[in-house]
C-alpha cells in the first residue's frame, strides 16, 4: 500500500521532469546569449595581424615561384613540339 502511494505520487513528477528540465536549459541558454562577446586584448591584435601579413607574404612568394616555374615549363614544352 505504501509503495503504491509513493508510485502514484512520483509518476506525475517523472512525467514533468523532461519538459521542466528542457525549459530550464532553454532559459539558461537564452540568458547566456545576451552577454556581450569577450574580445581579445588589444595587445594580441597587432601580433595576430602581423602573423597573418607574414603568412600572406610567404604565400605570395610561393605563388610567384609556382607561376614562374609553370611559365618556364610551358615554354620548354612549346620548343620541343
Description:
This protein is mainly α. Helix content is 85%, strand content 0%. It contains two helices and no strands. The protein has helices spanning 2-33, 44-80. The model has no long low-confidence stretch (mean pLDDT 81).
Characterize this entry briefly.
Helix content is 85%, strand content 0%. By secondary structure, it is an all-alpha fold. The protein has two domains: 1-34; 41-81.
Question: Which keywords apply here?
Answer:
81 residues, mainly alpha
Mean pLDDT: 81
Rounded to the nearest angstrom, the distance between the terminal CA atoms is 101 Å
DSSP helical segment count: 2
Class by helix and strand content?
mainly alpha
**Overall radius of gyration:** 33 Å
Tell me about the biggest sheet?
none
**Overall number of strands:** 0
How many domains, in number, for the residues?
A: 2
Provide the helix percentage: over 70%
SSE order and pairing:
Elements lengths: L1 H32 L10 H37 L1
Amino acid at each position: 500500500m505504501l509503495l503504491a502511494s509513493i508510485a502514484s505520487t512520483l509518476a506525475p513528477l517523472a512525467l514533468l521532469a523532461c519538459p521542466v528540465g528542457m525549459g530550464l536549459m532553454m532559459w539558461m541558454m537564452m540568458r547566456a546569449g545576451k552577454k556581450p562577446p569577450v574580445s581579445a586584448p588589444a595587445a594580441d591584435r597587432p601580433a595576430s595581424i602581423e602573423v597573418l601579413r607574414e603568412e600572406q607574404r610567404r604565400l605570395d612568394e610561393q605563388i610567384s615561384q609556382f607561376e614562374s616555374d609553370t611559365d618556364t615549363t610551358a615554354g620548354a614544352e612549346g620548343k620541343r613540339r
